[in-house]
Design a protein that fits this description.
There is one protein chain. This protein is of the alpha/beta class and 296 residues long. It is built from 13 helices and 8 strands.
Amino acid sequence: MTPEQGLTAPPHVTIVIPVYNAARYIAETLDSAFAQTYENFDVVCVDDCSTDDSVEIIRQYIETSPNAQQLSLIQLSENSGPSVARNKGIAAAKGIYILPLDADDKIDQCYMQKAINCFIADPAIDVVYCKATTIGNDVSPYDFPPYDAGEMAVRNLVFATAFFKKSDWVQYNGYNENMRTGLEDWDFWLHFTEDSKRFLQINETLFFYRKHGESRSESAQKNYSALIKQIRKNHPKIFGFKAHLSNAHLRRYTLKKVKRRIKNIRKWIIHIRLKKSEKIIRVAGVYLLQKKTDQV
């Protein structure tokens, strides 16, 4: 019997919030965390050397909020990125279950209760997440396709704000700290995929992802190629040659890349041929013009 199965009291949950220059949103994020209908939880904020008023706002929250005993603050000595911040927070977490939450996002008041109900109903479940919508500059559904282990090798299907067991975090040595500029959540979930862990999506919108042009998702897009290369190095079991042969999703993805490269090469060849043709036409034109001038 696992520790999670043997518990009679409601299992404890820790929400871990990495914070970096989130003064505009952190109070709203904390309000959504402490609005949970589930009661047995705490919140750990990890400040990653913010240069704005984020720390002061959190401290004020601790001093004035009736939930002060459930909130703690860790301050890093140097800016280290979200993987390190999450790892520090989870290492200090009291909870059996962990919920990462970015400092500009929000969760529905029922998210925790419904997730814990799922774990209790089926202890074999390893990750619980939900449907989502964006808030901020763009309000629209933020739903990923249903989880599929094969498809997970091609793209991330589970956002970071999902519940998992701290014991799994320990088993996988936490978030990989070489994913400093993004996609660390996808990299983390791939450990679960490698071990055929079970993911369950609640068919309700309980997570609210903020889009404001400054989010890390936008930043990750700028470094996407380098991050993908790092993910492939981190997970040879998924991205090795044998995996490509056995994973239809990876084969299709690779085939698309090959076709795209062939198409680009063809465009380049056509471009070079056109350039050569233009040069030949210009040279011929100059020659004919010179010949005509000589005849005159």
